[in-house]
Write a structure and sequence with these properties.
- This protein is an alpha+beta fold.
- 16% of the residues lie in helices and 42% in strands.
- It has 3 helices and 12 strands.
- The strands form 3 sheets. The chain has a 6-stranded mixed sheet, with helices on one face. A 3-stranded antiparallel sheet has the order 2-1-9, with no helix packed on it. Strands 10-11-12 form a 3-stranded antiparallel sheet, with no helix packed on it.
- Strand 7 and strand 8 form a beta hairpin.
- The N and C termini lie far apart (76 Å).
Amino acid sequence: MNEEIIEEIKENTGTKVISEEEKAMTTWLIFLISDKKYAIKSSDVLEIISDLSVYKLPFLPEYIEGVLNRRGEPYTVINPNPIFDENPNAPPPEKQLYMVFKRDDDQLSLHISDILLFTKIEDSNLKLIPDATEESFFLGTVDYEGEEIPVLNQTSFELLIRKDCGSI
């Protein structure tokens, strides 16, 4: 009896049969800016901070709210409302919630309204915009429960700041 079990184990080891095609998955953060949903790869987010003071800076474009102090490091706070609504006087979201981007070259944060969820979505559900560039605010859309949610391009915010304020 034991010999039969050992022989069966030997036969079954080393061969793995996958009955269904394994699908690549990415974890996405779905969040709100005002009342609109957006998505970003969770790997692009360092952390989400709430209730910090933002220190205004003079002579900057309206979409730059100022800077926040994250553990002694200054992070530029971007108000996305003037960018997306094309209203240069659009106020920032009411809630003090800041998404800090994970970047090697600069320190940016985005003022958001709320976090809805983290979820794994099949990579096949990401629809890229064919002619999107680094300056495009959106890379494409991701399909979540039948809804097309725009995917933000965090690099576009840095490029916008460099264009409007110059490289510092």
